[in-house]
Amino acid sequence: MTAHHRDEVITVPRDEYEALKAEVRRLRRELGRQQALLAIMDNAANPGRLRTFTRDELAAEWGVSG
């Protein structure tokens, strides 16, 4: 295993970096959609026990920083 130091610098080409950021955003949106679908299905299965979300919880699920 390689030891990592905080002062090591890793360079990534700008286009690759932007592509990685876009993929992370896409994955966060997909995860948010999956979580929302699970919540909807749970609410449908248990109508007397509706789940509520705070703004912070929703932002975290969707990967939106406030």
Primary descriptors:
mainly alpha, single chain, 2 helices
Distance between the termini: 37 Å
Strand tally is: 0
Count of alpha/pi helices: 2
Low-pLDDT runs: none
Instruction: Give the helix/strand class.
Output: mainly alpha
Secondary-structure element order, as H and E? Answer: HH
Report the major sheet. Answer: none
Mean pLDDT, as a whole number? 80
Report on the architecture of this protein.
With 66 residues, the protein is mainly alpha-helical. It contains two helices and no strands. The longest helix has 32 residues, at 14-45. The radius of gyration is 18 Å and the shape is elongated. The mean pLDDT is 80.
What order do the helices and strands come in, and which of them pair?
Blueprint: H1 14-45, H2 55-62
Précis, in short:
This protein has 66 residues and is mainly α.
